[in-house]
Amino acid sequence: MAQIRVLRRMASILTTPLAPEDVLGLINPLSSSRQLRGVVTKVVRETPDSTTIHFRPGRGWNPHAAGQWARVGVEIDGVRHWRSYSLSAAAGHDPAITVTAIGVVSTALARDTKTGDILFLDTPQGDFTLPEHPRPLLMLTAGSGLTPVMSMIRTLVPRRPDADVVLIHSARTPADALFHDELLELADQFPGLTVKHWFTRDSGTDAPARRLDLSDATDLETLCPDWRDRAAYACGPAEFLDAATELWLRDGHDDTHENLTIERFAPALLPGTGGEGGLVTFEKSDKEVEVGGDVSLLDAGEGCGVVMPSGCRMGICRSCLTPLVAGKVRDLRTGEVHGDEGELIQTCVNAAAGPVHLDI
C-alpha cells in the first residue's frame, strides 16, 4: 500500500495541475474514477422520431437484465441533463437505448447523437424483468413502451425453444411502430413468438383505425384468447396502463392481477392532489415562479431556467433530491402535505403547498 501511495504522489506531480485520472481521461474517455461513461458505437434510426443508440460502457457498468432501465446523462449547451431510458438490447450484449424525440433532452439524443460521442451513465436498475421460471407470456405495449419488452423478446425468444410469447403492440401507423420489421422477422423465424400489431390511425388497409379498447375484454379476447392464462407484462402511456390494470382486476380470474406486471414511464399521480400551489423561490439560482398545485417543483424550476438535478422523473431514483429551506410541499402521488427545514424533497413528485423556498 505504501508503494501505491508513493506512485500516486509521483503521478500527481507529473500531471499537475490535472489529476492523474484527468490525464487518463484525455487518453481514454471511458476511464474515470468519478463518473461512469459509455462511448456510442452505433446509431440506428428506427422511425422518423425514434433512434436506437448503442454504446460500450466503461468500467463499473453492471450487465443489465432484460427489461431494466438506466439513467443517462447528456450535455446540452454546457449543462449536463439526466434522464432514465429503458435498455432495448438483449441481455448479455452491449447496451442500447431507443429514444423518441419528445422533450429537449430526448430530442437532442435522438437527433444529434453520433458514433464516438460520450454518454454519462448510471448502473442498470428496475424489476420489470422476465419471470424466473418458463411460462406463457403476454406482452402488451403501446408506443415507446415496447423498448423494455423488446429487450425481453431479443433475450428470450432466440435462446429458448420452449418460449411462448404473444406480443400485442399498439402504434399510430406502421411507420411509427418501433422495430416493426424486426419483430415480423423474429415471428417468422421463431414459432414461440406471435406478434399482433394494432394501429390507431392508419393500418394501410381498409380496416377501421381506432384505439385498442381495454375497457372490456373484447379486443383482447380476439387478439389473445388465452390471455387470462398468461403472465402479462404491460408498458406504455399512463391511460393505457390504468385501463389494463382495471381490466385484469375486473375480468380476469380472482388472482390474475398478480400476473400483470406494469412498467410506467411517468409516476402514477393521485387524482385531485393539486392544491393551491404557491410562489417557489430557488434561492441559489435567485429565481422565483408562481405555480399551480399540480405542477411539480422539478417542472417549475426547469420552466424558469433553473438547472435542476433529475433522473427517472417519477419518484424512483431519488436523483432529484433538493433541500427544503422553508414551506410545505404536497406529494402528487398521495396528496400528503409535508416538509421540514432541511428535508430532502423529491422535486419530480412534489408540488408547492403554499410558498416554498428550495436550496438550489
Automatic annotation (TrEMBL):
Domain named 2Fe-2S ferredoxin-type is located at 278-360
Q: Which UniProt keywords apply?
A: 2Fe-2S, FAD, Flavoprotein, Iron, Iron-sulfur, Metal-binding, Oxidoreductase
Cofactor dependency = FAD
Q: Which GO terms describe its molecular function?
A: 2 iron, 2 sulfur cluster binding; metal ion binding; oxidoreductase activity
The segment(s) forming the FAD-binding FR-type domain are 33-131
Domain of life of the organism encoding this protein: Bacteria
Q: Which residues form a coiled coil?
A: none
- In Pfam terms, one family for this protein is NAD_binding_1
- InterPro entries, per this entry? 2Fe-2S_ferredoxin-like_sf (IPR036010), 2Fe-2S_ferredoxin-type (IPR001041), Beta-grasp_dom_sf (IPR012675), FAD-bd_FR_type (IPR017927), FNR_nucleotide-bd (IPR039261), MRET (IPR050415), OxRdtase_FAD/NAD-bd (IPR001433), Riboflavin_synthase-like_b-brl (IPR017938)
Q: Which PANTHER family match?
A: NADH OXIDOREDUCTASE HCR (PTHR47354)
Supply the name of the protein.
Ferredoxin-NADP reductase
Source organism per UniProt: Humibacillus xanthopallidus
Q: Organism classification, top ranks?
A: Bacteria, Bacillati, Actinomycetota, Actinomycetes, Micrococcales
